[in-house]
Design a protein that fits this description.
alpha+beta; 3 helices; about 70 residues
Length: about 70
């Protein structure tokens, strides 16, 4: 899933994906991944996730995220 995270980061940095983003806007900016990926990836890797997985995103509202260290 490192490739998916890298693609999301690149889309945000290039302006293709605006923050805060949702699973739907991420799918539009970075198509080609399984639907389940868009539905679970951001919550699974949000700050404070219950599974203690790598924290890559900050949830700013239900279903809305920003990348960590975004300017």
């Amino acid at each position: 899933m490192k490739a998916f995270a890298s693609e999301i980061y690149a889309a945000v940095r290039s302006g293709k994906l605006r923050e805060p983003f949702t699973a739907t806007t991420a799918k539009l900016a970075c198509p080609g991944w399984a639907d389940a990926t868009y539905k679970v990836f951001f919550n699974k890797h949000r700050v404070g996730n219950p599974g203690n997985t790598t924290e890559l995103f900050i949830r700013v509202a239900p279903g809305q995220f920003r990348i960590i260290n975004s300017n």
